[in-house]
Write a structure and sequence with these properties.
This protein is 0% helix and 48% strand. Strand 4 and strand 5 form a beta hairpin. The protein is mainly β.
């Protein structure tokens, strides 16, 4: 599966952005999906994951209460709604797909990655 992330941009603190990740192919519903991010000079970190049918979600502590992951299998797209953004959310955000029973917070577990979209939050 090929993944194409979009929706990044520059916002002020407290603002919102919605990231999208479109998948190619007809097997999107077989994959659990995740969002990760990588800030300059830091390791890639887990943000959120969602089950194949959208019924299971799991968030990093930093994302809980502010970010919402969702998916539309008919459109082969996963979303990350980000609200109340903070400067520390500045990073390149990546979507990823894992062909397994469940999603994972470990980036090494994922099978496919999108190219990343940059989110910049200014104070």
């Amino acid at each position: 599966v090929q993944l194409q992330a979009s929706g990044g941009g520059s916002v002020q603190a407290g603002g919102s952005l919605r990231l999208s990740c479109a998948a190619s192919g007809r097997t999107f519903s077989r994959y659990n999906m995740g969002w990760f991010r990588q800030a300059p000079g830091k390791e890639r970190e887990f943000v959120a994951t969602i089950g194949k049918s959208g019924d299971r979600t799991y968030y990093a502590d930093s994302a809980k209460g502010r970010f919402t992951i969702s998916r539309d299998n008919a459109k082969s797209t996963v979303y990350l709604q980000m609200n109340s953004l903070k400067p520390e959310d500045t990073a390149v955000y990546y979507c990823a797909a894992i062909l397994a029973e469940y999603g994972s917070s470990r980036y090494s577990a994922y099978d496919y990655w999108g190219q990343g979209t940059l989110v910049t939050v200014s104070s």
